């Protein structure tokens, strides 16, 4: 769906490239996560892909069409839901949707059907007559999303769509994004909330300082650089002799009835499980596996993802 090759971009007054030598392919039908801290280049990249900015160097193709040469054709099949509110606060929900339906040049006989579709997806039926300025933060985000659905996009860009909303509104937006994607729309989802990207996306690209750190599925990213962590909760606290024997395992930490290893190989796990079994030490719960994207990013850059 999207092919990017050696993309570079620098703002006119900038001293360095905001996007530097970026190459990326995004398949049709993907729910693709674009992850990175503030200032990593996510929003700039989205602005380039939607035609709001023009890159100085590199090649971009969307649905086999080239940017900027085929910009009109590309903009007809895409939609951007920006981080900022993109509606008129003095207009009602319905008035905003009808207005943007006309801006998008949707045929007059289709406008009301399109508006109805968007209202249904965003569950705004009870709020159509309310002025946008009086909506809660979550409802404003849903109105933003509804406007972005009016042209029935094949490719939907969502730039930080859950900023400033409560957990219930966030859950609704994430579930709605899943449904939109399952209906066939390719979604590019940008965020610095790593837990959202982990939960939603089938592929993830991580940007930092305008460069691609890595790209792949969540399992691919974590398996390449993250060690496996082991956390075990026992049903009872180990005896002194058991504790002394356990502490002979390099890297094992014991606190009360809890055991923890930050870098646990499979051989370590097997040896530990054998010891627990021979000592008749019962396990209440156990977690073993790779870390998360926050840990991965910290290992790669030495910085927190949300820095």
Annotate the secondary structure layout.
Layout: E1 2-9, E2 19-26, E3 31-35, H1 42-49, E4 57-62, E5 65-67, H2 71-75, E6 78-81, H3 93-103, H4 108-122, H5 137-148, E7 155-159, H6 167-182, E8 186-191, H7 194-200, E9 203-208, E10 211-216, H8 218-225, E11 228-234, H9 240-246, E12 252-255, E13 258-261, H10 266-278, E14 283-290, H11 293-301
Parallel strand pairs: 3-8, 3-9, 6-7, 7-8
Antiparallel strand pairs: 1-2, 1-4, 4-5, 9-10, 11-13, 11-14, 12-13
Characterise this structure:
By secondary structure, the chain is an alpha/beta fold. The protein folds into 2 domains: about 30-50 and about 80-225, Rossmann fold (3-Layer(aba) Sandwich), CATH 3.40.50; about 225-290, Alpha-Beta Plaits, CATH 3.30.70. It has 11 helices and 14 strands. It has helices spanning about 40-50, 70-75, 95-105, 110-120, 135-150, 165-180, 195-200, 220-225, 240-245, 265-280, 295-300; strands at about 1-10, 20-25, 30-35, 55-60, 65, 80, 155-160, 185-190, 205-210, 210-215, 230-235, 250-255, 260, 285-290. The strands form 3 sheets. It has a 6-stranded mixed beta sheet, with helices on both faces. Helix 3 (about 95-105) packs across helix 4. It starts with a strand and ends in a 6-residue tail after the last helix. About 35% of the residues are buried. The mean pLDDT is about 90.
């Amino acid at each position: 769906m999207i092919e990017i090759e050696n993309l570079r971009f620098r703002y006119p007054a900038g001293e360095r490239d905001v996007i530097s030598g970026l190459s990326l392919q995004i398949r049709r039908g993907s729910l693709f996560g674009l992850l990175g801290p503030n200032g990593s280049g996510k929003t700039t990249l989205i602005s380039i892909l939607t035609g709001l900015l023009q890159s100085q160097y590199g090649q971009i193709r969307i649905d086999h069409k080239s940017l900027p040469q085929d910009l009109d054709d590309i903009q007809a099949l895409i939609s951007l839901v920006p981080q900022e509110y993109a509606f008129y606060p003095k207009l009602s929900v319905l008035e905003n949707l009808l207005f943007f339906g006309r801006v998008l040049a949707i045929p007059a006989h289709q406008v009301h059907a399109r508006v109805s579709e968007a209202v249904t997806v965003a569950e705004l039926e009870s709020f159509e007559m309310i002025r946008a300025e009086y909506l809660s933060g979550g409802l404003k985000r849903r109105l933003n999303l509804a406007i972005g659905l009016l042209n029935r996009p094949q490719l939907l860009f969502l730039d930080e769509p859950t900023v400033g909303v409560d957990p219930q509104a966030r859950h609704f937006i994430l579930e709605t994004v899943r449904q939109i994607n399952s209906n066939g729309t390719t979604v590019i989802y940008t965020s610095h909330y790593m837990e959202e990207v982990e939960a939603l996306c089938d592929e993830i690209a991580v940007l930092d300082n305008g460069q691609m750190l890595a790209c792949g599925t969540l399992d691919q990213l974590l398996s390449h650089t993250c060690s496996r962590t082991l956390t075990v909760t026992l049903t009872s606290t180990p005896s002194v002799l058991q504790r002394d024997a356990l502490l002979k395992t390099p890297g094992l930490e014991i606190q009360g009835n809890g055991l923890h290893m930050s870098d646990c190989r499979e051989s370590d796990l097997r040896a530990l499980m054998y010891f627990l079994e021979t000592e008749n030490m019962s396990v209440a719960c156990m977690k073993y596996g790779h870390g998360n994207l926050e840990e991965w990013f910290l290992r790669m850059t030495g910085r927190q993802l949300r820095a």
